Every structure is written in structure tokens, then in C-alpha cells.
Amino acid sequence: MNKGKAFYEGKAKILYATDDPDLIIQYFKDDATAFNAQKRGTIQDKGIMNNKISEVLFKFLETEGVPTHFVQRLNDREMLVRRLEIIPVEVIVRNLIAGSLAKRLGLEEGGLLSRPILEHCYKSDSLGDPMINEFHIRALGWATDGELREIEALSFRVNALLKDFFDRRNLMLVDFKLEFGRHHGKVYLGDEICPDTCRLWEKGSLEKLDKDRFRRDLGKVEDAYQEVCRRVCG
Ligand code: TMP
Asked: Ligand 1 atom closest to Cα of 198?
């Protein structure tokens, strides 16, 4: 597999073409941003840990029948993935009240929701990923009705699977963000699943073991990623 040119650089990853038009390489950086990149920093070895954590989680989801873009991990910072036509929507699933939900509705962080909440945001850095709903997505032609139903079913299934997976590792899956795309007409789960994109709290102590340590200057940022990596990959 020959690595070609970088064709996209995001805040946490770089995407490279390969000699196979169906496959690309996803490179994980140590760069961290928050609040629409107003806050920037580096989390030592984050790229290595997120690559490994994402590998384990994608493999687990695949064995449970969830189609993901993951093909194989190539080295410390790179994984080979299917090239997706990205649907420009971030899907957020919430099990507990936290983050922007707490802020938007004036609710205290930590409350358990009686059922999971699904939210959609338009994937646009310049607009700050504004929240939208399924009517926007259909009316603007970003996804069809059938694709939206598939995305919803996959998101709730991923939630049930990951909640249980993390629970067995003494972690609560508070909320997380997913991205989807099309590959030869079929919907696949893309991007990454890691402490950048999930809120993970230690059961009992409720200690935060995710990117909120960076966002909120809580300290021990690297330690949190390492601890999640140890429990997920160990
Ligand atoms: P929020 O509470 O800030 O809306 O975040 C919900 C979840 O989505 C949280 O687990 C972190 C994740 N997330 C991302 O992956 N990327 C983002 O740009 C944002 C704002 C949140």
C-alpha cells in the first residue's frame, strides 16, 4: 500500500490518498483544540493513543455488525480506512446531562437521562458546528430519509454496544459524537472514537477521563488518555 498525497488536514487528523482509490490513510496528530479552535494545545502521544483506542472500538463494533470505515491499523499513528463521501453532519448521542446540553438548557451536569438523546450538528468549523435537525438534513439534501433512518438506528446501536463495553471497564459513557459517510452507496461509521469524541467518567468517583480535562484545564490530561488506552487496549 503506497501512501500518496495529503488531501485533507483537520484539527486532529490528516488524510492521505493511497494507490487504491477506495482506501485512504488516517494519520492521528497530537494537536488538541476546543471551543471551535479558540483554544489550542498539544496532548503528548494523543495521536498514538487515539489510533489504538479507535482501532479496538471499530473492530469491536464490526464484530457486532456495525459497518465502519476501519480496515487495519498500519503503525502508531496511522490506520487504513475506506474512503467515505462524508455526510456533513455530526451525530451526538447523550446518556447523561453534560457539556453543551447542560449549558443550553440550564441543567446540572451529571443527571441521568430517562432515554438517550440524539442530536445533529452541521459539520462546519467556520460556523461553529451549529445544531440542526433532521428536517434541515433532508431539505438541504445532505442525506436521504433512508440514510437518516439508518444513521439513527446505527447510532443507538453503537451507543448500546459502547455503553456496555465501557461499563465493563469501569467507565460511564456520558456522551459521544459520530460521523457517517457513504462508500459504494452504503452508509458506514467513519472518523474516530476516542477520548476526544466521547465523555468518559470513572464509575463511582465520576472523575473525567476525556478531553474535558483539556477543555476545562483540569490537569492530568495525558494521564486520562493513557488510562482509557490501558483499559480499552490493555
Ligand atoms: P457537547 O456537549 O460539547 O455538545 O459535546 C458532546 C460530545 O461530542 C462530547 O462527547 C464531545 C463530542 N464533541 C466532538 O467530538 N467534537 C466537537 O466539536 C464537540 C463540540 C463535541
From this structure: 10
Q: Where are the domains of the chain?
A: 3-82, 85-222
In b/e form, how buried is each residue of 190-211, taking b as 16+ CB within 10 angstroms?
bbbbbbbbbbbbbeeeeebbbb
Q: Which residue do the cell numbers 501512501 mark?
A: 3
Ligand 1 pocket list (CB less than 6 A): 92, 98-101, 129, 175-177, 197-199
- One digit per residue, the tens of pLDDT, for the chain of length 234 reads 899 999 999 999 999 999 999 999 999 999 999 999 999 999 999 999 999 999 999 999 999 999 999 999 999 999 999 999 999 999 999 999 999 999 999 999 999 999 999 999 999 999 999 999 999 999 999 999 999 999 999 999 999 999 999 999 999 999 999 999 999 999 999 999 999 999 999 999 999 999 999 999 999 999 999 999 999 998
Q: Which CATH superfamily is domain 3-82 in?
A: Phosphorylase Kinase; domain 1 (3.30.200.20)
Q: What is the pTM of this model?
A: 0.98
